[in-house]
Amino acid sequence: MCSLVSSKSRTVDNQRTDTFTTAGDKKAFDFRGFKPFKLQKVEPIKHNTNLYRFQFDSPDQISGLAISSHVLIRYTTGGLFGYVFRPYSPISTHQM
Length: 96
Known about the structure:
two-stranded antiparallel sheet
């Protein structure tokens, strides 16, 4: 189990405003903090690239992430937290 959060946000008049939050419950990321997702599968693509598939709360959910988003992954190993920050690179349409 790991937790993910998107960093797609901007600041307007010293107020943080997250984008892509108006589509309702269909989007798995709500941009308000970490949310746990179960890692379903890791598919090797190239020697330095893997495709990580995570299980959402329901089968009809989409990630809701846009191109130029980043994902911050928090994981636990040996009782200690670790973090991985990576750009989000979509490989399918936003409906998937």
